[in-house]
């Protein structure tokens, strides 16, 4: 057998990428786990997830050959993490991709060269087995030509990649034979084959030949462009090179397991299967949590935040099982950062922030965890008392869903007390919740069917709007109406889609909205209005025009941007950059842009931040932005390569959208960012910046809305007008006296309310003396029932307190009218509550006031919309007390 190389994770990752770079591929950066401009995904869950826009034809890539090592996150089978050798939540997917460029006859020889070549992985060919789709004769022949042994090619009818509507096709999978010593099954077991459920034959690579469109009519039609999509699990391949039984003994996880050992109660990995599961859960989950928070997601009770919270709680419970009682996960963040520093240096830069978020969540969960234990102990005590020996499924699910208790933990606690858990009931409750979530989510993860109305149109178009808002003699080089290329577009309901050879109209991008304006012919007549501008697949500016007269392919026109609107957008865009920098300066470098809208009359800026922003910090941010405006900083732009731009200190938001040449916007000595948008020439053009609001718009996402220039002046003038009106109403001589006068009025109101409450209490006491004298005897005890005139439910409860202290009767029923509504209260003495429940009695009489209510056995209350029924409610209460 050929000797296996010794490569660590960083070397394997780099070798894979370098191989495909040498074969003409562009290395694409690993994108954020939080999807950008893709609402169909909760997380980036594969390498191809970041390539969807290329494969469905929405965007044509700069290079049709791409390669990446993409961090990914999946939690669909989280319950298996730690129990198996390969299940993980976060993993890295190595991949190479072709968008209509090469196909089987090229990718298969490359795959074999990478796997077996002495300069590359250097695997022994005898260790490799290939599965293929039985009808895919081309792939079979290409593997034979590449050098694969015939008996190492295994047909498998499941080798067809199809996720529903969109691209699909046969695939081929590569397995590495780790030898029978690594197997968990006998050699003659029916599952002991490449593709079977065993540990001997390890699947390391899947190559998809995307050659069909799966249409809505459930047909498979040839794609206009055949594509290649591959995925190789980094952790799996590293386990081969490091000769480990599972992924968790590799250099990607083992340092985390060793650190967890230090915190545990003398537990050692590899000595006990039950403990090993907990160590693996911790190592896996802290990686996922660290990267998810580093990419801007934060713990919460919904969406991505719920996933983080669930992972963190599972890890904390796993720690509890190992005897770790104090917060420990936050201390492991630097270890994650060190392990991944080679390819993900940003984790180290933000490790303090990530650790602080995790520590806060750990502390929050400690009280929740104790609450769960209290509930579990109570349920166990009740089950033992009733001697039925079973914890019901609904309770087990509540422990899981509310308190983060895995079913295994509940079973373990129960077993210690000689009890079982209703697992079927638990599964039923789990299934019911998943079905609700599925219906609510209604997410389509599939790619769109390729549309090539503009895909084949490669003629370039030039955007000149950075310094020109009017372009004469612009030629129509592309014209589509009603989804078809035409020579003449006609006025009507269908807007024309037009590409000019040059244009001053900005296409919506980076949060900046598109320009609007007019198209004018050679006679000075308006041909149509530009309503919107987007990017075509090859990035030309695609104008959507509402036509007044016909527009012709090849004709030339005058293009005029709405200048005033455009200048307002410029002011807001530059202000957005100033705001972004101010937030970093005031709140910390962890803040990241999570979205923005730059419009003509406002801007809003979304960013990641843990916790609310104080009024003091918000004021600092606003003051800092205005300071830069009044410093009259020059705003300059330069086009350069991406590496030079980064050396300039330019902030890159989403690396994948930048090509070889990038545009950098520099605002004096204050801010430098990658940006393709429009900006003012000097910050003094902005004039004024005013924050309108700050709020939370999602888990860990804050939004600032702001206005500039004349909109800011109008906003502030409105507030001045409101203040002056208030000043006049308060009859104060100067506006600055308004706060003092308001404080005086508030104090007067406070004193008046106290006086009113005292008077109402006095009146209630007087009524109590009259009401409490009227005690009636019934078959089931004594009762006081009366309609009184008090301020509301609060004073009814005060009367009930007096009644209870004096023990005047077995039952008290009171009613009052307040603000046109009826209020009812029923109180039952402690001694009588065993035979008569307040909640039962109030349900019988609440119908008289057209209402409903409930409460404890000794006190219940109800509200209704029929005060006229209060008297009858009293009569019915007495009647109910006389019933057998």
Automatic annotation (TrEMBL):
Residues 853-884 are annotated as: Disordered. Zn(2+) binds at residues 573, 577, 675, 679. GO terms for biological process: alanyl-tRNA aminoacylation. The keyword tRNA-binding applies. Residues 735-762 form a coiled coil. It catalyses: tRNA(Ala) + L-alanine + ATP = L-alanyl-tRNA(Ala) + AMP + diphosphate. GO terms for cellular component: cytosol. It is an enzyme of class 6 (ligase). It is found in: Cytoplasm. Binds 1 zinc ion per subunit. GO terms for molecular function: alanine-tRNA ligase activity; aminoacyl-tRNA deacylase activity; ATP binding; catalytic activity, acting on a protein; transferase activity; tRNA binding; zinc ion binding. PANTHER family: ALANINE--TRNA LIGASE, CYTOPLASMIC (PTHR11777:SF9), ALANYL-TRNA SYNTHETASE (PTHR11777). NCBIfam families: alaS. HAMAP family: Ala_tRNA_synth_B. Belongs to the class-II aminoacyl-tRNA synthetase family. Catalyzes the attachment of alanine to tRNA(Ala) in a two-step reaction: alanine is first activated by ATP to form Ala-AMP and then transferred to the acceptor end of tRNA(Ala). Also edits incorrectly charged Ser-tRNA(Ala) and Gly-tRNA(Ala) via its editing domain. This is Alanine--tRNA ligase.
């Amino acid at each position: 057998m050929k000797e296996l190389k010794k490569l660590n994770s960083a070397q394997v990752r780099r070798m894979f990428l370098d191989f495909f770079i040498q074969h003409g591929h562009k290395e694409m950066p690993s994108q954020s786990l939080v999807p950008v401009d893709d609402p169909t995904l909760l997380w980036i869950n594969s390498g191809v997830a970041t390539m969807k826009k290329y494969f469905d034809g929405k965007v044509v890539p700069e290079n049709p050959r791409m390669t990446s090592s993409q961090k990914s996150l999946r939690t669909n089978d989280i319950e298996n993490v730690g129990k198996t050798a390969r299940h993980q939540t976060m993993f890295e997917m190595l991949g190479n991709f072709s968008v209509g460029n090469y196909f089987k006859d090229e990718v298969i020889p490359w795959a074999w060269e990478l796997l077996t070549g002495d300069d590359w992985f250097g695997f022994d060919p005898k260790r490799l087995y290939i599965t293929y789709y039985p009808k895919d004769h081309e792939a079979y022949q290409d593997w034979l030509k590449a050098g694969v042994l015939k008996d190492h090619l295994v047909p498998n009818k499941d080798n067809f990649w199809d996720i529903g509507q969109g691209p699909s096709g046969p695939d081929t999978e590569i397995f590495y034979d780790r030898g029978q010593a690594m197997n968990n099954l006998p050699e003659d077991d029916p599952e002991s084959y490449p593709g079977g459920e065993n540990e001997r034959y390890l699947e390391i690579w899947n190559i998809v030949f995307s050659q069909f469109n799966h249409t809505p009519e459930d047909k498979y039609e040839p794609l206009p462009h055949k594509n290649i999509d591959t995925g190789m699990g980094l952790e799996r391949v590293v386990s081969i090179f490091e000769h480990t039984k599972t992924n968790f003994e590799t250099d990607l996880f083992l340092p985390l397991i060793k650190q967890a050992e230090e915190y545990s109660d003398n537990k050692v990995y590899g000595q006990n299967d039950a403990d090993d599961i907990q160590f693996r859960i911790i190592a896996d989950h802290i990686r996922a949590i660290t990267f998810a928070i580093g990419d801007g997601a934060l713990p919460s009770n919904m969406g991505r935040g719920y996933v983080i919270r669930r992972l963190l709680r599972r890890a904390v419970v796993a720690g509890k099982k190992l005897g770790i009682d104090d917060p420990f996960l936050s201390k492991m963040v630097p270890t994650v950062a060190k392990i991944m520093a080679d390819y993900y240096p940003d984790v180290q830069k933000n490790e303090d922030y990530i650790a602080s978020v995790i520590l806060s969540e750990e502390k929050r969960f400690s009280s929740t965890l104790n609450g769960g234990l209290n509930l579990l102990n109570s349920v166990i005590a009740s089950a033992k008392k009733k001697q039925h020996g079973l914890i019901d499924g609904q309770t087990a699910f509540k422990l899981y869903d509310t308190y983060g208790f895995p079913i295994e933990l509940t079973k373990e606690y129960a077993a210690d007390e000689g009890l079982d858990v209703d697992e079927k009931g638990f599964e039923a409750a789990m299934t019911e919740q998943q079905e609700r979530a599925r219906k609510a989510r209604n997410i389509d993860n599939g790619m769109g069917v390729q549309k090539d109305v503009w895909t084949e149109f490669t003629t370039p178009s030039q955007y000149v709007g950075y310094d020109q808002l009017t372009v004469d003699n612009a030629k129509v080089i592309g014209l589509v109406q009603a989804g078809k290329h035409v020579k003449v577009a006609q006025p009507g309901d269908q807007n024309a889609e037009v590409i000019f050879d040059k244009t001053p109209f900005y296409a919506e991008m980076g949060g900046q909205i598109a320009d609007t304006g007019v198209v004018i012919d050679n006679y000075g007549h308006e041909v149509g209005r530009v309503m919107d501008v987007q990017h075509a697949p090859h990035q030309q500016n695609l104008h959507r025009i509402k036509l007044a007269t016909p527009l012709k392919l090849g004709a030339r026109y005058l293009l005029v941007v709405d200048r005033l609107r455009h200048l307002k957008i410029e002011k807001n865009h530059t202000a957005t950059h100033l705001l972004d920098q101010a937030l970093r300066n005031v709140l910390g470098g962890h803040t990241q842009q999570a979205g923005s809208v730059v419009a003509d009359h406002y801007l809003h800026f979304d960013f990641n931040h843990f916790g609310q922003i104080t009024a003091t910090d918000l004021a600092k941010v606003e003051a800092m932005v205005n300071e830069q405006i009044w410093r009259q900083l020059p705003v300059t732009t330069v086009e350069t390569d991406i590496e030079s731009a980064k050396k300039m200190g330019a902030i890159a938001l989403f690396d994948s959208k930048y090509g070889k040449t990038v545009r950098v916007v520099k605002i004096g000595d204050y801010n430098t960012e990658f940006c393709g948008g429009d900006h003012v020439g000097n910050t003094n053009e902005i004039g004024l910046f005013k924050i309108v609001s700050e709020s939370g718009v999602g888990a860990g996402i804050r939004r600032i809305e702001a206005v500039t220039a004349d909109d800011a002046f109008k906003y502030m003038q409105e507030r001045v007008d409101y203040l002056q009106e208030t000043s006049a109403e308060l009859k104060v001589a100067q506006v600055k006296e308004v706060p003092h006068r308001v404080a005086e009025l508030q104090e007067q109101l406070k004193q008046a309310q106290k006086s009113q409450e005292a008077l109402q209490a006095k009146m209630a006491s007087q009524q109590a003396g009259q009401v409490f004298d009227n005690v009636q005897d019934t078959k089931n005890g004594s009762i006081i029932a009366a309609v009184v005139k008090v301020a509301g439910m609060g004073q009814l409860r005060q009367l009930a307190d007096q009644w209870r202290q004096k023990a005047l009767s077995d039952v008290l029923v009171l009613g009052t009218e307040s603000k046109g509504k009826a209020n009812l209260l029923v109180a039952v003495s402690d001694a009588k509550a065993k035979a008569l429940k307040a909640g039962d009695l109030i349900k019988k009489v609440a119908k008289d006031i057209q209402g409903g209510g409930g409460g404890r056995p000794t006190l219940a209350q109800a509200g209704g919309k029929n005060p006229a029924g209060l008297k009858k409610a009293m009569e019915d209460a007495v009647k109910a007390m006389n019933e057998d």
